[in-house]
């Protein structure tokens, strides 16, 4: 008797929940289609299957849940336009400081590279050894040049 009662409750629950669940679920179908020219296409769009020989590759139910709207609390801090302007000014100052530091490091790296290029030791008869010795200095210059370019781009985008 308890089983019949449980089945009855389950049946009533499913009959009530069924339409609600059906509205929240969608079927996602994947087709493998051949067009008249013999080209194979894999699609999930029903419109792409028209006029082609298609077979279902997979079919699964996808539950779609609408996003809940979240309201911010009444005392949640808001950013005013004055705050935004001051924040941008601080960001610009920081970027300008970083840019000047990076440009100084670039100048120093170029100076060190020039010094190393001027040095010729007697054991470097093979030019490949010279290139190998200079490689770290050239890499350092390249890194600082890229950093300067990136900081200039960031400053330009901040000023827009």
Which class best fits the helix and strand makeup? alpha+beta
Return the string of H and E elements.
HEEEHH
Average pLDDT for all residues:
82
Q: Kindly report the spatial arrangement of strands forming the biggest sheet.
A: 2-1-3
Whole-number total of structural domains: 2
Distance between the termini: 76 Å
Helix content: 55-70%
What does this structure look like?
With 160 residues, this protein is α+β, with helices and mostly antiparallel strands. It folds into two domains: 11-63, no CATH class; 81-159. It has three helices and three strands, in the order αβββαα. The protein has a three-stranded antiparallel β-sheet with strand order 2-1-3. Helix 2 (81-118) runs antiparallel to helix 3. 1% of the residues are buried.
List keywords for this structure.
160 residues; 3 helices; 3-stranded antiparallel β-sheet; alpha+beta; 2 domains; single chain
């Amino acid at each position: 008797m308890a089983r019949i009662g449980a089945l009855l409750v389950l049946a009533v629950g499913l009959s009530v929940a069924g339409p609600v669940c059906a509205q929240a679920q969608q079927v996602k179908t994947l087709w493998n289609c051949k067009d008249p020219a013999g080209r194979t296409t894999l699609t999930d769009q029903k419109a792409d299957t028209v006029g082609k020989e298609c077979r279902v590759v997979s079919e699964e139910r996808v539950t779609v849940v609408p996003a809940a709207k979240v309201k911010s609390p009444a005392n949640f801090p808001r950013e005013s336009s004055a705050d935004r302007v001051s924040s941008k000014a601080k960001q610009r100052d920081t970027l300008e400081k970083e840019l000047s530091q990076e440009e100084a490091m670039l100048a120093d790296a170029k100076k060190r590279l020039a010094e190393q290029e001027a040095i010729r030791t007697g054991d470097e008869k093979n030019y490949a050894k010279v290139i190998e010795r200079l490689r770290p200095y050239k890499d350092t210059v390249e890194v600082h040049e890229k950093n300067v370019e990136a900081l200039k781009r960031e400053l330009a985008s901040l000023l827009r």
